[in-house]
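This protein record is not my work; I was only asked to verify it. Would you go through it and say whether the fold makes sense for this chain? Here is the record exactly as it was handed to me.
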Amino acid sequence: MWTGAHDFSMTNFVECLSGRACIRALRVSACLALILAITWVAFFAVQVNPLIVGFTYVLAILVVAARWGLVESLATSVAAMLCLNYFFLPPIRSLTLVDPQNWVALFVFMVIAVTASTLSSSVRQRSAEAQARTVEMESLYQLSLSLMLVDTTRDIGPQITEHIKTQFSLQAVAYCDGLTREISFAGEETQRFDQETLRTISMGEGSWFIGRKQSTSNSGEVIVAPVVLGGRILGSLGIAGPPLSEPALQAVANLTAISIEHARQQIAAGRVEVARQNERLKGILLDALAHDFITPLTSIKSAITTVRSEYGHEPEEDDFLAVVEEEADKLGGLVTETVDMARIEPGRTRIQRRQLSVAELIGASVNRMKSALDGRPLEVQIQDGISSVNADPDMIGLALRQLLGNAIKFSPPGSKIAIYAQQANEIVTMKVRDQGPGVPPDEAAAIFERFYRGRRTQEWSPGTGMGLSIARDIITAHRGRLWVENVPEAGAQFSFTLPIFR
């Protein structure tokens, strides 16, 4: 909806009317002088007949209408009619008409004069409007080209306002960003803008309101309009200067919206590319770190194995060497697993699915956690005839080990840990149950966030708070779901689902 607001002071209003009235009075006086000159020549100097004088008057009316406008041409028409009646139609030098034919002739002359004045003035006005639209179209074209070259490495607002001001020869331009509420200005008369109005429209509170504030000091008008794209308010635009047509104003606002959206997309694409490069560099760094860790561990493992097999030792010494070898194996597994965990990005885990037996998955995970279980009672129940799952063995094994490690960490030593696997339709559900303190209901969702640690355990249990988050990301990537619930017998039960292999 297009609305306008006029704000005139009485002094400026009077000054404006006085100036326009003086100009128009001078033009009307010139028109009357022209008619009097034609009349003097035709009546006193040449003494031509009424027909020729009438055509001369019509020509003068057309010239005035083409040059100045409708008001001047109407004044010329009335003066010409009176002179024609007084000087050339009988009785001469009288405003009365005796012959009815002269009444008809005078009426026809008046109609022709007024019609010609109106048409000529209309054509002149349409020509001026067409010329103005042509100039606006050229300015819009140049504006579109300049907005395509906006530098996204700098602030967008000042660039847009400067381009609009330059292309349309405006006095000042303002743009308020709908996200940051920051206002950018271009020009010297920025005080003419109401910043509160700019911010209000940019927030969508005046979504379809366009404020027009007319000026009387030959400085144009002030317009504040929303910048809209696809029904979304991106900001607001203020223009001060020569008046723009409504189509041109809409086009400027649309070009501004397109430019801003394009710039934001370029910025977003740049950030994605930076993130991709960072991910690539992170992978290279992780591979280098893994190599730097694995290489000395492999040497240690080889040396310990050689010493145990090639040299004789006392039983006590052999036990110590066995512990060193076992701990080296454990450290190597931890390094490999840590690198795998660090490579997992939330929501974008890379997996390679294949047919995987549930019993093999649980067995491999339990064997990897044997030293951590440390003889703790473990119950495994797998439903008879359960189907194989469609999963990545390394990733799902890592997720299951995270749940087992969580159960070991947060349950009393010597307490039982249970693993259940059952199938319903085309979904396999696996559960890991412990006998620990359970999970507070208000933390049931938060514990799956990265680096979150429960209030009751963060002081006495070490950890980074990443294990459950990694398990959730892996299971989500397999189109499964992970959740936690407390069991009546005390303890927590973590359950997740996997699709069966087809």
In short: The chain has a mean pLDDT of 80. The chain is about 55% helix and 15% strand.
